[in-house]
Amino acid sequence: MRQARDYLIATVVAIGVSLIPAAHAQTRLSLGHGAAPGNPRSEAALKFATLLKEKSGGTLTVEIGGAAQHGDEVAMLASLTTGKLDLSINSQGPAGLLVPEITALGLPYAFSDSASALQTLDGPIGQELAKKFEAKGMILLAWMDNGIRQMTNNKRPINAPGDIKGLRIRTTADKSTMDLVRALEATPVPINFSDLYTALQQGYVDGQENPLANIHSAKLHEVQKYISITNHKFEATPFLISAETWKRLSADERKIIKESAEAATVLQRKLMADSADKLLAEYKGMPSVKVNTVGIGAFKAATQKVWDNWELKPFGAFVRKLRAASN
């Protein structure tokens, strides 16, 4: 018996087969986003990575490339469709190049606050958009919050619609934002968020529009004098995974990724909500910037024609559905 055992061991060693049980296979995923460190989106990505590792016992891990390390958001979406990038916490504007309907979420004054917008997205309208993402090769994991947006500039406080007339305002590639800015007789200038600080610093544009959390994390207040609380639009942040990646995952892995994404989204939404009042108070106490709050009635009146024009688009039925839900 001993000779037989020794012969078996020798044979196994000779052919390179281990008698030690193999460790569980590891899956390493890549995640890209364009936010700066400290931004709620960045913090949510870190939370997602922690939860993924904990829930999977270390068999699922994610490598995070923040601050546009995987390219700008349009490039990240392209990489998702091919499976070159596994996950992206992306922005509404770039996502609208693939799913035009999502840009309607940013139509002027569609939502009074993020909470009402997110409630809408967590329902049938969000599910309808998720199906459209799937048709483009991406699976929607969750809707994060990109906040209610405010105007900043270096020329003058914006108290009335006429105050923005003639200014060059940086926007995302989001067509609803560009139409909103045009309706106020200003010039929209699409610029990648990673290039925005320099564009403002060098005077290539006069101002921009973003939620306070994004303005703060990117330190845009260092190169802007006026912050006007216009609350002019909402933007969503779709958390997406490549359909190519999704196909390769087991049912258990998909469940862990979905649960981790949802938990990270709860954190991101809370950070965005908490930051709004906190940052507004901080900016009001900052001598280098001047903060004013506008009455939105005149702005709503000046931009309602954007809604009317969008109802004539090929996806006008979706716009009408959204208009009814937001009202």
Structure commentary:
- There is one protein chain.
- The chain is an alpha/beta fold and 327 residues long.
- The protein has a single domain (25-326), classed as 3-Layer(aba) Sandwich (D-Maltodextrin-Binding Protein, domain 2).
- It has helices at residues 2-15, 40-56, 73-82, 92-95, 114-121, 124-135, 175-183, 196-201, 212-217, 243-248, 251-284, 297-310, 316-326, and strands at residues 27-33, 60-65, 87-89, 138-148, 150-153, 168-171, 187-190, 207-210, 226-229, 234-242, 290-293.
- Strands 7-6-8-5-9-11 form a 6-stranded mixed sheet, with helices on both faces. Strands 2-1-3-10-4 form a 5-stranded mixed sheet, sandwiched between helices.
- Strand 6 (168-171), helix 7 (175-183) and strand 7 (187-190) form a beta-alpha-beta unit.
Please describe the biggest sheet, giving its number of strands, its sense, and whether it closes into a barrel: 6 strands, mixed
Task: Work out the helicity level.
Answer: 40-55%
Could you give the order of strands across the largest sheet? 7-6-8-5-9-11
- The run of helices and strands is HEHEHEHHHEEEHEHEHEEHHEHH
Radius of gyration: 24 Å
Stated plainly, the CATH topology is called: D-Maltodextrin-Binding Protein, domain 2
How does the overall form come out from the CA principal axes? Answer: globular
Assigned CATH class = Alpha Beta
Distance from N terminus to C terminus (CA atoms, Å) equals: 83 Å
CATH-assigned homologous superfamily: Bacterial extracellular solute-binding protein, family 7
Q: What is the tally of beta strands?
A: 11
> How much of the residues is beta strand, in percent?
15-25%
Number of domains: 1
By helix and strand content, what is the structural category? Answer: alpha/beta
Query: Which stretches are poorly predicted, pLDDT < 50 over at least 5 residues?
Result: 1-23
Q: What's the number of helices?
A: 13
